[in-house]
Design a protein that fits this description.
Strands 3, 4, 5, 6, 7 and 8 form a six-stranded mixed sheet that branches. This protein is an alpha/beta fold. The chain is built from 25 helices and eight strands. The protein is elongated and about 105 Å long. 58% of the residues lie in helices and 8% in strands. The model is unreliable at 113-132 and 598-602 (pLDDT under 50).
Length: 602
């Protein structure tokens, strides 16, 4: 008898078919039930692998054993002459079993693909907005993995993901999670369901970038967040000079998969191509990579990269705008730089020059407009021109969360609280997991006397970025202001570096005024930089004369936080002092005669 005939006689083929049908049913049921039971994402792949591993055992088992009226026996132990074999009966039963299982599998497939299901309930507390069901036309673009041989192209893989995100954001019918929020999950072991819930999106785009020489391969996969179902995947190969074209193809493919109707010029172009120079684009992506990480070392690297991009392509608008934003931030971050001993690095003139270059190339550049506005507020105190720039920036790109944040801060400086809240909320709506926006909102509500709400926002800021230095320093001050001294001491103990002892001494003095002299001595040795640091703490300790003297010293040094002067409530006891009024006059704040913020034309 041939091998094929023997396999048929022993029902090996039928057993294999029945097993595959059973495996398909189990996999379908698992993938359907797992999200509802909040099972981890790896459950379905594990079930599939168990099925694959079990398959050869089923084949061997059906070859070696046979079911007889007396039970399971080895094939070689069966007496054929005694007619003990019932393979023909077993064959019919296996046929019926396989057909039944295949019918069940088909029904489950049809139900899964064509019958709407309610999304699994939200389990993440990342944002309040996540509680609402996600629109099917919504997506988060996660940072792409760097698969280059040297694993030294992270800036490029992040940049490609960010530019695809920006391209998709141009589609009116598509909700796209902000860059900071999407990139928050980089390196974190979160399920796609948790990511979708946190960001309020129904779909997630994952990908990888592999570069070798001048060649690049971008691999992407579009996944349904609620159940991990793969909607689509594709690899794109090309030259680095084709990267914009590749990004364009990917963006169009995604919108097609999400059945988004493109309108107007978006039928032909989504991904903005602002340079034809490969080296300029590479350096620009490197600059964005460092700028997003903030801190003085990263900002210096960002300056170097943006300058290299401009050197390669002097007409590169985005590079000029990125350079302007970096220079605008350096004065503030230099004050908090431990390596700089609190000395401000003045790059205001460079920021304005870079912003002007960008705006000459593109008068609607949101990033350049917001950078110029930032400098106009913090250094020139030209409030009217700054507000016009911010409004123009947001009109140009309503999804620019940085423009919303910075505009909200400007409104906060003028105590235009409700307007500031609108801008902070708008920034958080675009980028719900951006720690800097949460920190800015925390300051705003604290200055209004809403300490509990301030602590909640500050805690959210630190949950999103546990090593966020500014939040670590400010949190114990707010807690001490609320007389939650035990928590304030714990928070002060978490402040890194030599400032830790100062913060502990400050909290102790707030709890026991007898320790004030020791706290002041500590503040004179090590204190948080800028107007929002040492002067605020001295005022809270009741040393208003010292606080005023420190304010005068900081103004003489052109402190980059001078615009906070009117907003900080701890300085209110100083408002009647002519010396304070002289400082207030320097920032040219538009105030009414009664001292309140002047109305600004809408």
């Amino acid at each position: 008898m041939s091998l094929f005939a023997e396999l048929q006689r022993r029902n090996v083929f039928r057993a294999a078919a029945a097993y595959m049908a059973l495996g398909w049913v189990v996999t379908q049921v698992t993938s359907t039930v797992a999200p509802a039971l909040h099972l981890p994402e790896w459950i379905v792949p594990v079930v599939v692998w168990i099925g694959v591993i079990g398959f050869p055992f089923v084949i061997v088992f059906s070859w070696v054993f046979e079911l007889t009226p007396e039970g399971l026996k080895r094939e070689r132990d069966i007496d054929r002459n005694a007619s003990a074999s019932i393979t023909h009966h077993t064959a019919r039963r296996l046929d019926h079993l396989a057909i039944g299982l295949f019918c069940v599998a088909i029904v489950l497939f049809v139900v899964d693909r064509f019958v709407p299901r309610a999304s699994a309930p939200a389990t993440s507390s990342s944002t309040a907005a996540a509680n609402a069901p996600a629109d099917n036309k919504s997506i988060a673009v996660l940072p792409f993995a760097d698969l280059s041989p040297g694993h030294d192209q992270e800036y490029f893989s992040d940049g490609v993901a960010e530019e695809i995100l920006d391209a998709l954001a141009q589609v009116p019918d598509l909700k796209v999670a902000g860059r900071t929020s999407s990139f928050y999950f980089k390196g974190k072991n979160e399920t796609l369901q948790a990511i979708g819930t946190a960001l309020g999106v129904a779909n997630v785009l994952e990908g990888s970038v592999r570069t070798q020489g001048t060649k690049v391969r971008i691999t992407v996969q579009l996944i349904q967040a609620r159940d991990g179902f793969h909607l689509w995947s594709q690899s794109y190969d090309g030259d680095l000079s084709d990267v914009f074209q590749l990004q364009e193809r990917i963006a169009h493919a995604i919108t097609d998969q999400l059945r988004v109707v493109l309108q107007g010029g978006q039928k032909t172009q989504l991904a903005a191509k602002s340079t034809d120079n490969v080296e300029a684009h590479q350096q620009y992506l490197r600059g964005r990579y460092f700028l997003a990480r903030r801190g003085m070392p990263n900002l210096r690297d960002a300056v170097t990269a943006f300058k290299a991009a401009i050197e390669a392509d002097h007409e590169y608008t985005d590079a000029w705008a990125g350079l302007a934003q970096t220079y605008a931030l350096i004065p503030e971050y230099s004050v908090f730089d431990p390596a700089g001993n609190g000395q401000m690095v003045d790059t205001i003139a460079q920021a304005l020059e870079a912003a002007d270059h960008a705006l000459q190339l593109d008068p609607a550049s949101s990033k350049a407009l917001s950078a110029r506005a930032y400098v106009r507020v913090g250094s020139q105190f030209d409030w009217t021109a700054a507000e016009a720039d911010y409004r123009a920036a947001i009109a140009s790109d309503p999804r620019d969360s940085t423009a919303h944040q910075w505009y909200g801060e400007m409104l906060m400086y003028q105590r235009r609280w409700s307007e500031a809240a609108v801008q902070f909320d708008a920034g958080i709506a675009v980028d719900p997991l951006a720690p800097i926006v949460q920190m800015s909102r925390a300051l705003s509500v604290w200055y209004q006397g809403k300490g509990e709400a301030a602590v909640a926002s500050m805690d959210e800021s630190l949950r999103l970025q546990p090593d966020f230095y500014n939040s670590l320093v400010i949190r114990p001050i707010i807690l001490a202001d609320l007389h939650r001294f035990d928590q304030a001491l714990t928070a002060a103990d978490a402040v890194p570096g030599p400032l830790r002892e100062t913060m502990l001494s400050f909290v102790a003095a707030m709890q026991d005024p007898a320790r004030t002299d020791a706290a002041v001595q500590q503040l004179n040795m090590h204190a948080p930089g800028g107007l929002t640091g040492k002067p605020v703490m001295l005022a809270m300790l009741g040393r208003h004369d010292l606080a005023l003297a420190e304010l005068e010293r900081l103004f003489a040094q052109h402190d980059p936080y001078r615009e906070f002067l009117y907003a900080v409530p701890q300085f209110e006891p100083l408002h009647g002092d002519p010396r304070f009024q002289a400082l207030l006059k320097q920032i040219n704040l538009p105030l009414k005669a009664d001292g309140r913020a002047a109305d600004v034309p809408k």
